[in-house]
Amino acid sequence: MVMALDFTSIKDVRYGKDPAVDAWLLHFMTANHLASFIDPIKNASPEQLRFMVSMDDDQVFAPCSDWLFNRLVTPGLASDLLQEYIYVWKILIKLVRTHVSDRYQRKLILNLCRHKFKQAIDASTLIPCRLLKGMVTIFLSQSGLDDPYLNRKNILTSRGKAYTKSDFFKRSMESCPYPALHCDCLEDMRFELDMIELERIFRLSTLPDIWCSDIFSGDLTRYSTCFSKDKVDFSSVIDIFSQNRSGLKILFIPDESGGLMADFLMVKSLLRQGHSVIMALKEGFSFDSPTFWDSENDPVLAEALKGAYFMTDDRVSKNDLLATLRKNPLVIISDGTRERLNLIRCSVTFARAWKESDLILAKGWENRRRLIKNTHLFTRDVLCFHRNLDGKFKLDFKAKSPSAHQFSESDISAKADEIITEMQQARAERKAVMFYSAVVGSIPGQVDVAIELLMTFVTDLRDRLEDTYIINPAEHFEEGMDADDLMFMWEKVQRSGLISIWRFQTYADIERSFELMGKKVPPVWVGKDATYSTGCTKEMHIAQDVQLGYRELQIIGPSADKFLRRREYGVGRFSDVVIEP
């Protein structure tokens, strides 16, 4: 039975109030293949999702607008929801009939997809774009095609380049502002000119919505008329950039391939202003949307992207991402999907790029539906721009959640530097510097106990060891910092070369801690030591690497060959993903 949920915003929908409602919500997530507990490889964990979406543990997030979610959870098939399904069905039919010439194969694909379509209509719980993605997957697997729109996108890119070279585009971009700017100082005038340039590129890049062949005819009247009628409140953009005139990290999510050539002018403007840009493209075929691999078959696109760094790792670490951004002002990544923006299905690299960015810049009405029309707040400021069906330019700004924490690379480095300064002071006082690595999050549900053990044991160590400065990681936690931030901070501390003794927790340490606490060792802690921890495993590898450069470093605790049991952290988590088989 379909549950009727009473809500005005998707933010109001929460787990834990009614078991029947919870069951239906889980059914909705599993039906759309969005449940992380069913497929943790393809779907983001709650911790990874919170890199992007500001939400509580019991809140529900769906990759669609509030309007669509309301239709999907309302009993029955509403007429406007039916139209959404019919829309994606027509897209699929056109795709198959255009690109499958074999009559038998064409009928097989269409009939198979028709079964999926009817199933979706009967249930009316499947997000239409998820339905389309599933049917397209059937089409691709049965037809043997990787990207049926490859040639089409090459044409769109060429048309986009011709558009940016047209007299209309040049005149629109290069004409002097009227009335003339008031100048108090050159720096302010330069900033005003930069904002005028950005505003013009935003508007011009959205004009040729279908990239028609009339771009080549010389008749750009309708574009000129539409452009001249634009009325834009650009204050939100000016406010963002006035606070940070350089140094912003911007994640840009483009729309269609034809618009990329104008988008690159916007990127160049941002780079010239001193910002860095991460451009997120699709992993595979998604109609006119540009993919990560398109430049391999499109010389026009390859030329435009010359000098950009292509990041092929879809699970990049925070350290590697930041190192790449320091060296490359323009980085191209894949969002990991073949569909409209879906934060639950996006890659780890995309999620980390979002988290490390200061601004999300998204183009197109499809991105607007997922980011603006979904009332959830995000962890970063979001700016969307597009043109509606009437040709009117629209600019939407959604400020990041007030509860969102953002620790920049400089913030985390500054905290690491504080600890390093204390280590240097200890060394100057001829004290030994000990770093203590211990289990914290590797035993589910035992984080608080692990921290208590750590605090108890280090306090005891300090009483017993003379002239020894002991670093206890549990004493340097700051609210809002996730595992990514902490690992980044600690690695900088650990590689400083100031550690004299690196001590890894043994089972004897754990027994001693429980003894000091006046408790017996519970079964879940019996036999545990640092080898059970993912963090400690990573730290042992770092310790061995540091020891190569600083031979006097002593590593004590379980032997290094025992640190092989754990694979990696869950993204943004303090607990582990899996034990190595």
What does this structure look like?
- By secondary structure, this protein is α/β, with parallel strands linked by helices.
- The chain has helices spanning 19-31, 46-49, 66-73, 79-99, 103-123, 128-143, 150-165, 167-174, 186-205, 221-228, 235-243, 260-272, 299-304, 318-327, 348-356, 365-371, 409-428, 447-464, 483-494, 507-516, 534-549, and strands at residues 249-253, 276-281, 309-310, 330-334, 359-363, 381-387, 393-398, 432-437, 468-471, 501-504, 554-556.
- Helix 5 (103-123) runs antiparallel to helix 6 and helix 17 (409-428) runs parallel beside helix 19 (483-494).
Pairing-aware structural class of the strands and helices?
Answer: alpha/beta
Which word captures the global form?
A: globular
- Overall mean pLDDT stands at 90
Poorly predicted regions: 577-581
* Beta-strand content bin: 5-15%
Gyration radius, rounded: 27 Å
Percent of residues in helices comes to 40-55%
N/C terminus separation = 41 Å
Let me know the largest β-sheet. 7 strands, mixed
Beta strand count: 11
Number of helical runs? 21
Q: Taking strands numbered 1, 2, ... along the chain, how are they ordered across the largest sheet?
A: 3-4-2-1-5-6-7
Short description:
With 581 residues, this protein is an alpha/beta fold. 46% of the residues lie in helices and 9% in strands. Mean pLDDT is 90; it is low at 577-581.
